[in-house]
Specification:
Largest sheet: 4 strands, antiparallel
Helix content: 55-70%
Order of helices and strands: HEEHHHHHEHHEHEEHH
Shape: elongated
Number of helices: 11
Strand order of the largest sheet: 4-3-6-5
Radius of gyration: 31 Å
Low-confidence stretches: 1-21
Number of strands: 6
């Protein structure tokens, strides 16, 4: 349940990454193009917006690449202004879109900044409470090639031999050095034959007949049974925070739609939009 929500939420969070404004004393002029000053804040903005390829560069090279980009932009922007491009309808329309997009992002950043830690913890608690209980077992096993070998091991266990010592001496599985320890696992993690035997055994018992699988013959001991443990809050806090952000975003959009009517005239676009918004 967590996983699908994390993917969508992480995408949303990435869209609103930003840098805090710098105080005047921390925002020196780093270059000039004609009379236009380029400040550190301009450089930080350019760095944040570099393509993924440039983001892989060391910090010094990345900073130089960003400065080069700013200088190129300002040089060409001056030529564009001299040519009157800013007066064209296409340019004006794009500027309206860019302004509204930035207002959209700035408003969401403001709302996300107000998110309280207790809201994130409450969402985690709600998610954990809704998770179905799932049994898991802590098992050990001894893997051998033949049924006779497995039967002999069971006979030795019946005679009082220690399971861990037998696993270290007899098992052909990579877990032998740990006494056959497989740790805790839930259903669906092991091959069917092994899983059926392990989950049917009472805690502290071992199989009285060999369990055959594609790997050979197993003697299995169940050390413990319990409900599967949910991930600790500290482990998933960033992902839960992103889930809360995604839900807050949806709430903001729903509230805005109640305040302003959305009408899509084109029938095909309307159907596509309705399908898209239903799936979100």
């Amino acid at each position: 349940m967590f996983r699908s929500k994390f993917v969508a939420a992480a995408t949303l969070a990435a869209a609103f990454t930003f840098h805090s404004p710098l105080a005047a004393q921390d925002n020196p002029v780093v270059a000039k193009v004609g009379t236009v000053e380029i400040r550190k804040s301009d450089l930080d903005t350019a760095i944040a917006n570099l393509s993924a390829q440039y983001q892989q560069l060391p910090d010094e090279q990345k900073t130089v690449a960003a400065l080069s980009q700013i200088i190129d932009i300002k040089l060409v922007a001056k030529k564009a202004e001299d040519a009157g491009i800013q007066n064209g309808n296409d340019f004006k329309q794009r500027m309206v879109f860019l302004k509204e997009r930035e207002l959209h992002n700035a408003y969401l950043r403001d709302q996300f900044d107000k998110l309280k830690p207790e809201e994130v913890k409450a969402r985690y608690d709600k998610e954990i409470a809704a998770m179905p209980k799932e049994e898991e077992v802590h098992a050990r096993h001894i893997l051998v090639k033949t049924e006779d070998e497995a039967k002999d091991i069971i006979k030795q266990l019946d005679g009082g031999k220690d399971f861990i010592e037998l696993a270290k001496a007899k098992s052909e599985d990579s877990s032998k050095s740990d006494g056959g320890d497989l740790g805790y696992f839930t259903k669906g993690r092991m091959v069917p034959e092994f899983e059926e035997a392990a989950f049917s055994l009472p805690k502290g018992s071992y199989t009285k007949t060999p369990v055959k699988s594609q790997f050979g013959y197993h003697v299995i001991k169940v050390e413990d049974k319990r409900n599967a443990q949910p991930p600790a809050f500290d482990q998933v806090e960033p992902q839960v925070r992103q889930i809360v952000m995604q839900e807050k975003y949806s709430s903001i959009i729903d509230e805005a739609k109640k305040a302003q009517k959305v009408e899509i005239v084109d029938e095909n676009l309307r159907k596509g939009y309705d399908e898209l918004t239903k799936s979100e």
